[in-house]
Amino acid sequence: xxxxxxxxxxxxxxxxxxxxxxxxxxxxxxxxxxxxxxxxxxxxxxxxxxxxxxxxxxxxxxxxxxxxxxxxxxxxxxxxxxxxxxxxxxxxxxxxxxxxxxxxxxxxxxxxxxxxxxxxxxxxxxxxxxxxxxxxxxxxxxxxxxxxxxxxxxxxxxxxxxxxxxxxxxxxxxxxxxxxxxxxxxxxxxxxxxxxxxxxxxxxxxxxxxxxxxxxxxxxxxxxxxxxxxxxxxxxxxxxxxxxxxxxxxxxxxxxxxxxxxxxxxxxxxxxxxxxxxxxxxxxxxxxxxxxxxxxxxxxxxxxxxxxxxxxxxxxxxxxxxxxxxxxxxxxxxxxxxxxxxxxxxxxxxxxxxxxxxxxxxxxxxxxxxxxxxxxxxxxxxxxxxxxxxxxxxxxxxxxxxxxxxxxxxxxxxxxxxxxxxxxxxxxxxxxxxxxxxxxxxxxxxxxxxxxxxxxxxxxxxxxxxxxxxxxx
Length: 473
Prior knowledge:
The chain folds into two domains: 148 residues, Aspartate Aminotransferase, domain 1 (Alpha-Beta Complex), CATH 3.90.1150; 273 residues, Aspartate Aminotransferase, domain 2. Helix content is 36%, strand content 17%. The protein is built from 14 helices and 18 strands.
C-alpha cells in the first residue's frame, strides 16, 4: 500500500476488519516507532487472550511468561475482574478528578490500613495513572518534605520509568541521552548482584560489602554527600526496587535492606520503595519489601493493581509527609488520576486477595518453577544463573563458559519463540518472553500468578526446545 492509497482509504479504516498485512502497512505509515514495539523486527500482532495465553490470527496459543511486564498478574480476561469493569462501566465510568466517588475512597482506605498493619505507620494514598507518573508524584512529595532537596540515591540496574524525572533516577543513560536532565541525576549505588559480584563471597557477604561501601560515603564530608558539622545529607531519599525488575529480577540477600535502612535512618534519608513491577503478590506477598523486614517511608505501586485492565497507579506515604497541611490540594494533578474504572477494578482485586491469601500457592508454584529451571540449567551450559522469589524468576543466558553474557543468543531465542512453531505432541505453541538484565541477557519470567503446574511443565518443555534450537543453529 503506498502513501496516497493510505490517505484515500483513511476514512474507511474503522468500517471493516483489516487483514494483518494491511494493519502492518498502516502501522508503518501512521504509528510512531518511539515506543518499544519495534524492538522486534516484525512485531507480533495478537487477536485474543485468555488466562496464561495470547492468540494470534491463526489461533496459535502463545504461553505468556511475562504477562505484560507483570501487569496481568491474575490472568488475561480474569472473569471476576472483568465483571467489575463491566459493572463500573454501567454505573459510574467517568467522573472528573475534583469530585469524590466511592471506589477511590474505599480503595485508598484498604491500601492505607493494610500498610499501617504491616509497617506500623499511619499514611495516606495518592493516585495517578501510570508507574512513571506515580514516581514523579513521589519525587514531588520527597522534595517538598525535605525542603526542596533534589538529589536522590538509586541502584545500578534500577529502573523507575522514562518520564524526565523518573529517568533521572533510572540507572540507564540510554533513557536520558537524547533529552538532558529535568533534575539532578541520581547517585547510583552498587546492588548485590551476586552472580556477577566478587568471587568467593556468599550472597550475604556480598550484601554486607555493598552496605559498607554505601555507609563509607558518610565517613567524611569529602566523600561528597554528608556535612558532619550540620549532621545533614545533601540527598533526600534512596529509591529502591526490592527485587530489580528491568535489571534482571535480581534478588538480594534477605538481610540487605534492613542493614541499608539503618544507614539511611542514621543520616535522615528517606526510603522510597518502587513496587510497580514486584507488588501485588508477584513475589508471594502484597509488597515485595515485606520479605525484607523494613518499613518504607513512601511506597509506589501500579500495574497489577488493576490486572492491566485500566491505567492506575499511586503512592502510599507516611502521614507526616502527605497530610493536607504539608501536601495541600493541587500539589499534583492528572485528569485521569483515581478514575472510577481503575479504582473499581483495583478495589475488586484487593477484595479477591483478602478472601483467599494467594501467597502460599504462589510460593509453592514459584519453587516448582525454579526447580525446573535448575534442571534446565544442568542440561544447557549456556544457562549461567537461575534464581527467583515467588513467581519472579530469572534465567541468565551466557556463552559456553556459563558466565560471559550472551545477548545475541537470547535475542534470537525471543524471536524464535514468537514464530509459534514450538511443538508439543500435535499442537504448536508460541512463547512470550521478556529480556532484562544489566547486559540484556536475562529471561525475566513473570507468569500469571494463577498459572497451573501443567502450564509450568509446558513452559519448561518449550524453554528446553528453545535452548536446544539455540545450541544447534
